[in-house]
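Records of this kind hold a single protein each, on a pair of labelled lines. With that in mind, the following record should read easily:
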Amino acid sequence: MDEKAKTPKEQKKDKRHNFLSQMWTIILGTTISLIVTIVAAQILERNHRAKDRRLSAMMVMSNIESYAQILEAAYAYMEHADTVSAWLLDLPLDKVDSFDQDSLLSLMDEVMYIPIFVYDKTTESIFSDDIETWKNMGNFQFIDNVGKCFSNMHTIEEEWTAFSEEMDEVRDAVLYHPEQYPGSSWGSKYLNNPVFRQILRNFHNRRCWLQNKIEKIRYHNYVNMVTIGITEQELLEFIEMREKEVEVDREKPGDIIYTPNINPDSINTIHIPLSKTEN
């Protein structure tokens, strides 16, 4: 129908219909745009959380693997100490005094001074503080395996420290009370100490124990990698990146800095008058 042929009432109705159609189009477009924006924001947030979670997981797993590498260094020490211990225990006690004592004691030092190792608990603390976030994300298997790793790490550190302290006590017992042990040389006195000999016998078992702990930690950490979807190569590259030192245009300070002692003759800010009897 021609627009001019429509009555004013019909024309007014058409205008109202067009206006409502335009309004609904605007509302629908705005609603769709808002929904798309919200969905996009949620996807981005999930992606960010996934990246944050992945980075957090990498930090935790790299911390565990770094500790396993520290244990490997301790195992290398134990491998050598096991050999030295077996040799020392095989020495006839009545012949120990005839050996060159400097050479013998130098060899004994390799088993008597047990290195202490500790691990940085910063990452563990961060993980523990963020445990509720991991629970909310349903990563219960990851939480359980990380917990097993940290538990093993605590046990190893405590038992190894006790092992080192036990050796310290035996060494000091002979050092401070040599008269209580037979033999005319230090080497003979140590090897005549039954407690010291028992510690030497235990080196082999402790070496096996350490190897088992390394394998357990790495096994649980491997389960962590599978759970999160990270390969061993990715983890090793991440560890290398973390340990890489940042190059800066400044010289790195040494561990200890000593300066010359103050020369008393250069002190001119302190003056104490002589007593009257000295005047």
User: Anything to note?
Assistant: The helical segments are 8-89, 101-112, 122-129, 131-136, 140-176, 186-191, 194-228, 232-243. Residues 8-89 form the longest helix (82 residues). The CA atoms of residues 2 and 11 lie 11 Å apart.
